[in-house]
Specification:
Elements: H1 3-21, E1 35-43, E2 46-53, E3 59-66, E4 71-78
Length: 87
């Protein structure tokens, strides 16, 4: 699978997940144009990407493609906090 094909599938998976889990009363649905890649890596037949959306909800998505099994896995995370620890 090429990087472009993988990115298309990732964006579609994130769009589908978001739209099926969005709060109905917020009236917010996204398209793949609202999904962007933060980081991307391809090693041999496997791919991994971190994605987010333009919605300011603190969510991010990790998508992994297992080229041996031809399966894609999606992990969904929420950023709770960000702080610095001085050494």
């Amino acid at each position: 699978m090429s990087n472009d094909q993988f990115i298309e599938r990732c964006k579609a998976a994130v769009q589908d997940y978001f739209n099926s889990h969005a709060e109905k009363t917020d009236n917010v649905l996204i398209s793949t144009d609202d999904v962007y890649v933060v980081w991307l890596c391809k090693t041999l037949q496997n791919n991994k990407a971190l994605l987010s959306t333009t919605v300011p909800d603190g969510m991010y998505y990790e998508v992994t493609y297992n080229g041996d099994k031809h399966e894609m896995y999606v992990d969904v995370y929420k950023k709770w906090e960000n702080f610095a620890i001085k050494e």
